[in-house]
Write a structure and sequence with these properties.
Radius of gyration: 19 Å
Shape: globular
Helix content: 40-55%
CATH architecture: Alpha-Beta Barrel
Distance between the termini: 40 Å
Structural class: alpha/beta
Strand content: 5-15%
Oligomer: single chain
Number of strands: 8
Number of domains: 1
Order of helices and strands: HHEHEHEHEHHEHEHEHEH
C-alpha cells in the first residue's frame, strides 16, 4: 500500500465558530418560486433511495426501484433519482429491476454499519456486491482505529476497498457522529480522499447525530481544498436526518457557494435518504396543482 502523506497527520484545524456562523447564513437564503421548483427537481435527482432493514425483501426492493425510476406517476416530467441503495444480498434483485433506467445501483458493504468485520471478509463483501451488479459501494471506515490514531490502517483499508471495487465508485462513510470533533471529521475526510474515495459520506444513518449542516460544511471545505491542490473532483453525500425539502434546498445552497455549480449534479452530490423523497414530491405537487397531496398518496420507503 502507498504510505499516508505526512500532512494528513496534521490536517488544518477547523474554526468551529466560523462553521456555525456560516451555516446560519446559508439557512437564511431566500429562494424564489421558480428557482425553488428547479431546486426541488435537482434534489430529487440527487437522492439515493435507500432500504437497509432486516425485513427487506425482494418485493420491497422492486417497489423501491419502481419509485426510483418514476417518483410520481402523476408527473412524468420529474427526473429519476440518483441511485437505489441496498444490502449486498438484494443487489441482484435491484439490478434486474433498474436495468436500462439510468438509475445507479449502490450497495453498503464492509460490515455495515459497524465496520468491525475482518478486512478479508469486508473486501469479499465488496467483490460480491460488484459481481451482483452494484456500480457504487458505500463502505464504512474503522472508527475505533481512526480514533486510536491508527491513520495508516484506515488509509490502507480504504485503498484496499477502492481496489476491490474495480470500476465501481467508492463512497467512504466517516460516521461523523462517532468522530466527536470537527478536526477529526476534517482529518478523516482528507485521509479518505487521498486513499482513493470517489465520494465522502457523513453517516450510515443508523446512529445519531447523522448528517448535520455543520459537518457537511467541514467536509465540503475539505473537498474544496483537495480539488484546489490536485484538480480532482470528489463527490459528497450527507446521509441520515435530512427529512424535508426546505433542509435539502439549504444543502444545495451550501454546495453551490462552497464548491460551485459544477458539483450541483447527481454525479457529484447525493442525499442519503428514505423519507426525504416524499416531502420533495409533496412540495412539487403543491407547486404544480396549488394544493398538497395527502402523504398517503406516496409510497412509504
Amino acid at each position: 500500500m502507498k504510505p499516508v502523506p505526512r500532512y494528513l497527520q496534521h490536517s488544518p484545524p477547523v474554526d468551529a465558530v466560523g462553521i456555525t456562523e456560516r451555516v446560519a447564513r446559508f439557512k437564511t437564503r431566500s429562494i424564489k418560486a421558480a428557482t425553488k421548483v428547479s431546486g426541488l427537481k435537482l434534489a430529487l435527482s440527487m437522492l439515493d433511495l435507500t432500504t437497509l432493514e432486516g425485513k427487506d425483501s425482494p418485493g420491497k426492493v422492486r417497489q423501491l426501484c419502481r419509485k426510483a425510476i418514476t417518483p410520481d406517476p402523476a408527473d412524468p416530467s420529474l427526473p429519476h433519482v440518483g441511485a437505489v441503495c441496498v444490502y449486498p444480498t438484494m443487489v441482484a434483485t435491484a439490478h434486474k429491476a433498474l436495468k436500462g433506467s439510468g438509475v445507479h445501483l449502490a450497495s453498503v458493504a464492509t460490515s455495515f454499519p459497524s465496520g468491525l468485520g475482518t478486512l478479508a471478509a469486508r473486501l469479499e463483501e465488496i467483490r460480491y456486491a460488484v459481481g451482483e451488479g452494484a456500480d457504487e459501494i458505500d463502505m464504512v471506515i474503522s472508527r475505533g482505529r481512526f480514533l486510536a490514531g491508527e491513520f495508516n490502517y484506515v488509509f490502507d483499508e480504504i485503498a484496499a476497498c477502492k481496489e476491490a471495487c474495480g470500476t465501481a465508485h467508492l463512497k467512504v462513510i466517516l460516521e461523523t457522529g462517532e468522530l466527536h470533533t470537527y478536526d477529526n471529521v476534517r482529518r478523516a475526510s482528507d485521509l479518505a480522499m487521498e486513499a482513493g474515495a470517489d465520494f465522502i459520506k457523513t453517516s450510515t444513518g443508523k446512529m445519531a447525530p447523522a448528517a448535520t449542516p455543520e459537518v457537511t460544511l467541514v467536509m465540503l471545505q475539505a473537498i474544496q481544498d483537495y480539488h484546489e491542490r490536485t484538480g480532482r473532483m470528489i463527490g459528497m453525500k450527507p446521509a441520515g436526518g435530512i427529512r424535508d425539502a426546505k433542509t435539502a434546498l439549504s444543502y444545495l445552497v451550501m454546495v453551490r457557494e462552497v464548491l460551485g455549480p459544477d458539483w450541483l449534479n447527481p454525479d457529484w452530490f447525493r442525499f442519503g435518504a428514505s423519507t426525504l423523497a416524499n416531502d420533495i414530491l409533496m412540495q412539487l405537487a403543491k407547486q404544480r396543482t396549488g394544493h398538497y397531496a395527502s402523504p398517503d398518496y406516496f409510497s412509504n420507503d
